[in-house]
Structures are given as C-alpha cells and as structure tokens.
Write a structure and sequence with these properties.
TIM Barrel; 285 residues; alpha/beta; 9 strands; 40% helix; single chain
C-alpha cells in the first residue's frame, strides 16, 4: 500500500499528516504557554516529511493559523496547509456552529490573511450547522473555489447522506470525521470515500479505549513490534485504507517524532484483523 495520497487529483502528500489543534492553550483557547516550542514542533514536522498540516480558524481561535504562518511561511514546495471554517469560539471548550454562507466567506478571507496565502489548498466545512441548509454551506465553499480563493473543498463531521449531497454540488476532495480503533462509527463514510477516491482524514486518531490495557490486544501487538500502543493504532489506520490520512497532533517534538515513526510499523493481515475484531464490539456499542 502506497504511503502517498493524492488529494483532489493534483496534491500528493504522505499519508501521515499533522494536526495543529493542540498547539494552542488549554481548552484549545488562547496562545500556548511556550509559543517557541509550538513553532519548533511545526518546523520539525516539515523536517520529518509531513506534507499536510491541518488547522482551523477556531483553534485558539486564530492562534494555530498564526503560529503556522510564523513558523513556516514562506511555505516549502509541496506542503499543504488545510484549514476549516464553520465554528465560532465563545470560550474554552465551547464550539458553537456558524456555517452561514456569509460567515464562511468571511472566515476564509481571514484565514487567507493569517496564513499569508493567496489560495488555500484545502478548505473544509468544519461541521454542518443545523440552523443552515447544508447545501447553502457547501455552495459557499464552491463559490470560494470558483473565485480562486480555495483549491479543493473538504467536509468534516458529516454523515454518508451529507457526503452524497455535497458531491452533487462540488468535487469533495476530503472528508474529516472522528475515526479510530475505539470509535468506528464512520465506517460507512470511510468505505464510500475509498470507493470514490476521496481522502479520509480521521480526527482523534490515537484514541484506543481499553484496547491498550496491559495484556490487551493492542498492548500485545505493540510489544511484538517494539512500538507504543499509539504507534500501532496509527499503523492500523494506515493499513485500513489507502485513502486514510491520519493527522495526530501534539505539542512536543518528542511525541511528534514518535507519531511519525508509526509509518514504519508494518502490521500483518492477522494483526490487522485481530485489532479490528477486538474493537468491533466497542465501536458498535
């Protein structure tokens, strides 16, 4: 299975990216305690070959995007900066949705300024807004694409029905849903993305539930590979589908290096099946 994913037909990235949410303060609110360390993590990610960095205007808010520009602009060739719009922040841990077309357009313009870009390679609807027709939100991203402000459109936190409805309006390049060994409720969405060649970005990829308990299946496989349970969880995701693009996040260089090393963990078919079977009942609960 290739370690390269083509997004939207023309962007090639390694299938292990970096999620920049946790570079902010507690509650994904405000600046980090050590901004220099946050910028060092971003620079190290690029040194390690990460080809996609995922962020959002709501991370901080604005903090994550600003750190990315401070650390990495001018961006190296081939680096994809993916961001999202559609949520506001009213305080630590608070994420009210606002995916009105006019708001999405304002958010995209602001992200362009913060990221110091003329066009965003991948702009994603952060989450459907129950107060706004889904087609109106997706349509706003299509208009931004037609205006040359975004290159490819992605959607996040969506159902299979919403994926199909979005594809009637725009070429969907990526879908970003919660998915990991312990939570596989988006299995139908992943399968649809694989059939259509749409990149699938699982958020919260390192969650393992009690699978990593001492003597548990994940712990056993990790010891067999001289790896950590987190590395095996990422390796399982990479082996699950060729369109999978995990974006584990961290605020330390040491944990970043550990996560990226997961790409070197090669699980056998038997190990993949064992972990899938162990998690199936829990993810369906």
């Amino acid at each position: 299975m290739s370690d390269i994913l083509t997004i939207g037909g023309d962007l090639e990235v390694r299938r292990l990216g970096f999620g920049a949410m946790r570079l902010t303060g507690d509650g994904i609110w405000g600046p980090p305690d050590d901004p220099d360390r946050a910028r060092a993590v971003l620079r190290r990610a690029v040194e390690l070959g990460v080809g996609l960095i995922d962020t959002a205007d709501s991370y901080g808010p604005e903090v994550s995007e600003n750190l990315i520009a401070e650390a990495l602009h001018p961006y190296p060739d081939g680096l994809v900066i993916a961001t999202k719009g559609g949520m506001r922040r009213t305080g630590p841990g608070r994420w009210p949705r606002d995916a009105r077309p006019e708001r999405l357009k304002e958010a995209c313009e602001a992200s362009l300024r913060r990221l110091r870009l003329e066009r965003i390679d991948l702009y994603q609807l952060h989450s459907p807004d129950p107060a706004v027709p889904f087609e109106d939100s997706v349509g706003a991203l299509k208009e931004l694409q037609d205006e040359g402000k975004i290159r490819h459109v992605g959607i996040s936190n969506v159902s299979l029905d919403q994926v199909e409805r979005a594809r009637e309006l725009v070429d969907v390049a990526t879908v970003q849903n919660r998915y990991n060994l312990a939570d596989r409720h988006s299995e139908d969405v992943l399968d649809a993305c694989e059939r259509a060649g749409i990149g699938f970005i699982p958020w919260f990829p390192l969650a393992t539930g009690d699978l990593a308990r001492p003597g548990g299946p994940l712990d056993d496989v990790a010891r067999d590979h001289d790896a950590t349970p987190g590395q095996v969880a990422l390796a399982w995701l990479l082996g699950r589908s060729p369109v999978m693009l995990p974006i584990p996040g961290t605020s330390t260089v040491e944990h970043l290096e550990e996560n990226i090393a997961a790409a070197e963990v090669a699980l056998s078919v038997a190990e993949m099946d064992r972990l899938a079977a162990a998690s199936r009942g829990r993810s369906a609960a």
